[in-house]
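Appendix B: a complete holo record

For completeness, this appendix reproduces one full record from the ligand-bound portion of the collection. The bound molecule is magnesium ion. The inputs are the chain sequence and the ligand SMILES; the output is the full three-dimensional arrangement of the complex, encoded as structure tokens. No fields have been trimmed.
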Amino acid sequence: MPLICVCSPKGGVGKTTLAANLTYALARSGSKVLAIDFDMQNALRLHFGVPLSDERGYVAKSAESYDWGQDVLTAGGNIFVLPYGDVSEEQRLTFEHNLATDEHFLARGLGSLLNYPGLVIVADFPPGPSAALKAITPFADMHLVTLLADTASMSLLPHIENQRLTGGELNHNHGHFFVINQSDTRRQISRDVTAFLEERLGEQLLGIIHRDESVCEANASQKSIFDFSPSSAAAFDIEIIARKIVAKLGINVGDGTVHNVSRKSGL
Ligand SMILES: Nc1ncnc2c1ncn2[C@@H]1O[C@H](COP(=O)(O)OP(=O)(O)O)[C@@H](O)[C@H]1O
Ligand SMILES: [Mg+2]
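The structure of the chain with magnesium ion bound, as generated:
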């Protein structure tokens, strides 16, 4: 169950876009992949063709003790998505309260999915610290911190180093890594910040994704960058990052085709 958490101290940096396209990239390499949304914006599902009007999700029901796997939707091929769902303020607060106060809450909800053989999980988070990020961190194999090639992202590095995202070490398994998104080689400031982050992060910098208009267009058409614009710079960059993740986590390419499909959870 390799579990990858896509997080950031900042909003609007491309976490959801990266989480979705990594899901597609890992699925293309043969794994069965589940994308889980922990952000109440509930936007991750839109990257997998789930209609805007579809309000289903696991959060509204998770006040009760139940298996979140029941709300997994199939997104074609070996891709699955667990949407946050459309929730009231009260439901959101209950969910966050449970995450923060019941140490077994997340393990109960995600248990069957975490133990599903060969399933790769990519989880998307809201910006900054969250009860979900803190609760899932002990189970995570890798944290991918997404930053922009701008000074605001740069100024948040100490925030990450001082453990402000979860109050502790980000990852005890394979460590935490960074992705610089929307790097723009035409702009001096973007080049300067990218060079600074390359130097500062060293091996922890897993990849750089170019600023690429086809990413926005792919998002608007609810397609992956690989389907929408396979020869784009961003598709190339994300593919490289996915390959590095496969290598670092020792994901068995081809795992996804081995297991039977269960009607109940869609897995
Ligand atoms: N590499 C990129 N090039 C151009 N636009 C991008 C890129 N990555 C993300 N975007 C755009 O940036 C915006 C924010 O992305 P999103 O994934 O919603 O960020 P977050 O989840 O961090 O809030 C979206 O409009 C998305 O289309
Ligand atoms: Mg997002």
